[in-house]
Design a protein that fits this description.
The complex is a heterodimer. Chain A is mainly alpha-helical. Chain A has helices at about 1-40, 45-74. Chain B is mainly β. Chain B has helices spanning about 20-35, 50-60, and strands spanning about 65-75, 80-90, 100-115, 115-125, 130-135, 140-150, 155-165, 170-175, 180-190, 195-200, 205-220, 225-230, 235-240, 245-255, 260-270, 275-280, 285-295, 300-310, 315-320. Chain B has a 19-stranded mixed barrel. The chains are: A mainly alpha, B mainly beta.
Chain lengths: ~70, ~325
């Protein structure tokens, strides 16, 4: 008798937590999708272009130092 | 570029001393700045260009599909332009229903640009002919005429405006065909602050409106803030800041107090040597990015992306713009 009552008391809360867990997972999926696609178009090109800019600046510095270095060596 | 000295002499000479005179000059210039000369205020920007810095950062022309444009100069003053666009036009009204139609258009243009005048003509393959003439009569009066002819009735209209420039103010009078009349005035109040207003009147809808605008630029134009209020129930606040000479950040707040609708935007604009990248994010759940990459001098590759998360509407486009 007591076990059946306690089972009935437990089940709604288990159901509720399952529903809550599903909703949480659903909103986690949505948030992950929005965050990843938005950062893909906003941040990734910026990082790539900043990287290329750094490479160009380093290349120019190297070329300049090579030119002045050659003049000094001679 | 900093201290550059040649190593040709073997490095025997010591590096030159830093120049301290520039600091003294900056201090005396700062003292002079405290007393603005109110009789000689600078010319403010035109009323249409109050939001110029913000629009450059936050409003790139994104598109969906393929775009191909060629600007071909035949003369130092005359150039032809060919513009091809194949893609989707978004006609969704903002409700849940998404409506897109595929269009393919070709537009031919002929342009003459001189110091005193500018003539632009465009003819598109769906029969729309548009032209713009801008002429500077004197250094205080210039005028512009815009004409558009369409194939369907009701698509043709014309608009003429006259710009007057004083020493520290400018005004504009606009007249358009389905009886539109507009007048705006902008005045410098201090060397950094300018204020003005506009009036417009549409006879067909019996609509008229008044607007006020304020623009402040600080620190030699490094940051610009504008505020605009209109009697049509719109308030717009904007701020843009040039963080370094390559990166500008901008933000915008648009508030319709009639429909209680507000939208805030934050965006950046990075002008690097090989490309120009603009990105922004909205409170309507829209993220936009626009990249212009220079493949070789004169050939730019353009990519645009717009993600609308609330309506699940994703638009991507690419194109090539050749010529300047």
């Amino acid at each position: 008798m007591l076990s059946t009552i306690s089972n009935q008391a437990i089940q709604p809360s288990v159901q509720q937590s399952a529903i809550f867990g599903k909703k949480l997972f659903c909103s986690f999926k949505k948030a992950a999708w929005i965050a990843s696609t938005t950062s893909l178009i906003l941040l990734i090109p910026l990082i790539i272009e900043m990287d290329r800019e750094q490479q160009i600046i380093e290349l120019e510095k190297e070329q300049m130092s090579v030119l002045t270095g050659n003049a000094g060596a001679k | 570029m900093g201290l550059i000295y040649s190593k040709a002499d073997g490095g025997t000479e010591p590096p030159p001393m830093p120049n301290f005179a520039s600091i003294g000059a900056a201090a005396s210039a700062a003292l002079k700045r405290e007393k603005p000369n109110y009789l000689e205020l600078p010319q403010p920007v035109r009323y249409e260009e109050i939001q110029r810095e913000n629009i450059m950062v936050l409003k790139p022309d994104t598109f969906e599909g393929m775009r191909f444009e060629i600007n071909k100069p035949l003369n130092p003053y005359f150039f032809l332009s060919h513009a091809l666009y194949m893609g989707n036009l978004d006609l969704s009204t903002g409700s849940k229903q998404m409506l897109k139609t595929s269009v393919g258009t070709y537009e031919f243009g002929a342009n003459v640009i001189n110091e005193k005048y500018m003539l632009l003509g465009r003819l598109s393959n769906d029969g729309r002919l548009s032209g713009r003439v801008k002429y500077d009569f004197t250094n205080w009066l210039s005028s512009k005429v815009q004409l558009q002819l369409g194939t369907e009735p009701g698509q043709s209209h014309a608009m003429a405006d006259a710009d007057f420039k004083g020493s520290d103010w400018n005004a504009q009078l606009k007249v358009g065909t389905p009886s539109f009349l507009g007048l705006n005035y902008f005045q410098s109040v201090t060397p950094n602050l300018s204020a003005g207003g506009e009036l417009f009147w549409l006879q067909t809808n019996m609509k008229s409106g008044v607007g006020l605008a304020l623009r402040h630029q600080g620190d030699n134009g490094r940051h610009v803030s504008t505020a605009q209020v209109a009697s049509t129930g719109v308030m717009n606040l904007q701020y843009s800041h040039k963080v370094t000479d390559k990166v500008t950040l901008a933000t915008d707040l648009l508030w319709h107090w009639g429909t209680r609708d507000a939208c805030a935007t934050v965006g950046y604009d990075a002008i690097l040597r090989q490309c120009r990248l603009r990105g922004k994010i909205d409170t309507n759940g829209v993220a936009t990015a626009y990249l212009e990459e220079r493949f070789s001098p004169g050939i730019n590759f353009v990519m645009s992306a717009e993600l609308d998360h609330f309506h699940n509407n994703y638009k991507f486009g690419f194109g090539v713009v050749a010529g300047e």
